[in-house]
Each structure stands twice: as C-alpha cells, then as structure tokens.
Amino acid sequence: MDRYSVFALAREAIRNHRGWNRAWESPAPDRHYDVIVVGAGGHGLATAYYLGKNHGITNVAILEKGWLGGGNTGRNTTIIRSNYLQDASAAIYEKSRSLYETLSQDLNYNVMFSPRGLLNLAQTHHEVRGYRRIMSANGLQGVATSYLEPDAVRKLCPVMNLNGPRYPVLGALWQPRAGTARHDAVAWALARGCSAMGMHIIETCPVIGIRSADGAVSGVETTKGLIGCNKLALVAAGHSGTLAEMAGFRLPIESVALQALVSEPVKPCLDVVVMANTVHGYISQSDKGEMVIGGGADQYVNYTQRGSFQHIEETVRALIEMFPFLSNLTMLRQWGGIVDMTGDRSPILSKTPVDNIFVNCGWGTGGFKAIPGSGWAMSELVAKGEPGTLAAPFSLNRFREGMYVDENLAAGVAH
Amino acid sequence: MLRLRCPVCGMLAEETELHAGGEAHIVRATAGDSDAEFEAYMFLRKNVKGVVFERWLHQYGCGKWFHAARNSTSHQIYGTYPAQSAEPPAALLETIAAAVSDSGITESGASAADESTNDS
For the whole model, what pTM was predicted? Predict the structure, then answer.
C-alpha cells in the first residue's frame, strides 16, 4: 500500500500523478476463507478491518452484490452523533464517534470528519423534557452534551428562524463533538485498509445461497461459485432478511425506503448540523456547499431504493419554515436507501441459530454514525464467537426475552 | 405515490390519505403461547422482497381497514380485498401468479403502478 503523505503528493505532482496505485485490489475469490463478510458497505468493511487490526484475522473475504459503498453507505446524510438515551446505545455510538475522531490518522486516508456540533431542536414541551432527560443520561454515560436555551441556539445558527409560526424553537440538545464525515471516503479508506492486510474485496458477487452442515455454516454460494468459510458475518442492512432466509432463520426487521435530497451548492452559511424531529427534517451543509437534507421513511415494506413526492414535500415544507432562505434553492438530487428497522429501533449484533453465522444489522435510519463502533464490536463477536460488552445488549434474544434497548425517542424518526 | 382502491367505499385512495398497517394475516398470540410464539407474533415479520400482503387504513376517507397485495420491489398493486379475510382470495392469488409468471417476481413493472388492476 502506498502511504499517502504531503511528500507522496509532491512526488506525484512532479510526475503528473502517474505513480498512484489502486487503493484496493480486486482479486478473484479463493476457494476458502477463515471469515467471509457479506456486504462491502461501511459496516462490513469496518468489521473486516477490525478483525485484522484488533484480532489478527486476515484470511477474510468481503463479498458485495453491487459496488463498494453503493448501498446505504453512499445514500445517507453523513451525520455522526452519540446523544442516545440508553446506556447500551450511548456506549456503542460514543465508541464509534470517538473512533471517527482518529479514523483519518488510523487509516492514512482523509475521511473529512468534521466535529462541527449538532443541535437537536426542542419544539414542543415534550421534547424539552425529553432532551433534558437525554442530557442528564449523557452526563452519566460520559457523552458530552448540554441543553441550550433559544438565545444560545440563535448564536450557533443565525440563519434559522426560531419563531416559526407552528413550532417555535424552545431550546436544543447540543453535542459539540458530533458532526459529519465524507461517506464515500469512509468506505474507500476502510477498503484500502482491508486490502493492505491482504483481505479480498470481491464486488458484483451476490450471495445466492448459504451452505451449512451439522448446524454450522460451511460456505456461501455466489454468482462466482461456491466459497467455503469457517465463519460468516452477514452485514447487509436492508437485505439482511433475505440472507437470513437463505440460512434458514428469520430476523426481527422490516425493510423500508428512507430518502434524502441535496440542494445546489451555496456559500457557507450553516456550520452545525440541525435536526428537528417535530417538523421532521434534518440538515447540514456539505464541504461543497450543498444543503444535505434528510427526509422521511416509507411506512410500508419495500426494496425500491427510491423516494416519493409526498415525502419530499413534507420535508421541504418543514425545513422552509425553519430556514426560509431554502425556498430560493434548487434541489439537485434525491435518492432512497433501504433501511432495516427493528422493533426497538436499536441494532442487532448477534450470534444466530446457525453456528458460526453472525449478524450485524438493524441500524435502521442511522447506521453511518455507527460504522467504526459497529465494526469494532462485530469483529470481537466474530473473532471470539461471543459478544463483548459493546455488542452483548444487542443480541437477537432480546426480542424473545423482552430486554429491548428502546430508542424510539432518540431514533424513531430522524438520525 | 401509491394509489389503492378501497374495497369498502370504492374510492381510489392516494397514499397520503391512507395509513399503512403492516403485514396482513398475522394470527394474534394468546395467553398460553410460549415466548418464542409471542416473539414471532410481535417481531418476526416476513419482510418479503416480492409479493406482500398488507393491511391499510383508509384514514382520511371512509375510515375502514382493508387488505392489499403489492410488489415490494416495483410498487405494483395486484389488488385489494376486505379486511375480514383470513387469507388472500383465490382469484387474487391467480391474478398474482399470472402477473408474476408474465414479468418475473422482482423488478417487474418499471413504472409505479398507480391504478389497481384488480378490484376483486
């Protein structure tokens, strides 16, 4: 792997950038691997990366049905935060957020993590109480958040109309170390890190069957042939359910389309992330200047990866009320991704009814923020066969035992 | 936007006047059931990539529940039928079988089907 540095950049500048090598290799699959990870999105790649880095397991293949980072990793609104209510959630999301802070240095690749701060607006008295409660919980969990009065919100975000006719801003939960990162760079950086350890990233290779013998996994059937493995990690977000079906069990998830849209680029005017759950919209400004706007999720199961007009209308209507200047902007692109929703809005990192198959899914509408933390916890689960402290509360058994990690308040609508 | 024919009032209802009620034909758990049976009733949905049967409420219309058959990959609507059905009607299943064999079960109907083709 070429190490990226200012000296490498200077050297390549002199020779017209002809000396750069591919960031990751694309080999043909071997016949057998110690671990196969299904899904080369952020979570799958992070799982593989920390398998190598933390646990020394590098005979790993990452199989991807489409192209690397082309699913929800390339379709989210890039928000990173950890201001959740429950201890188990705060632990894994804060681990993830803290890993993001040094991810660029760790991977020698600029993922453009920008800890610009995040406001969760309180626009009803119920939300005021809810966010004060989360702030208190975060204080005990070691997650730095504070509760701001409207004057302080105005100072942080002067372009916002705080006195909206329907829902004036009554305050906000403020996480100063939350922010955004460049979504593609996260996937590319992790892929480069995995490839450098000798792992095989195999794109356009959908899994069409899962083989098991004596109750334990033995391999996967793919469009590129049968590939054997000792352990299998299913990390496929909205399509986890179809993979589980191949392995003969059912997951407590429902797949729905969640959509987002982005405006034409404008000069910098919004240097924090703003989330407004009551009117239902969330917004940040990308480094290119585009306003990145998160929209609503469909209410019914679908796999269409596209949005719908009424959700665009609903989202834009809400945001124009809060940011009147947005009404002058043209929206450039709109897209949808298939998210996997669980009953308690918390993820699943778990063993499964089939030995040596592990599942990492259920991140629902907010998986991007969790990529490094999820990979960290999942790699420990796969390497040791048992969950560590981060993953243990997110077992599949919790739905049977009633041990839910209820995050409907923090995560039910927007991430 | 989905448009479903409400079998109760006969209106062609737009998605915004409907409320989705999730998977249809789920049998309610009862007091004597095991934890596993309760989990299946409460959480384990089929989440099918293909033909789904689901419940809808005509919320801003006649206010009644009904059932619909839809393709979750194409939004094609195969038909709607009364809420008082323990299973999809045979005629609807035949319609679906014919549509699926015509076009393949996934990625069929590139444009969103906006009109119920079969009002059963």
Answer: 0.92
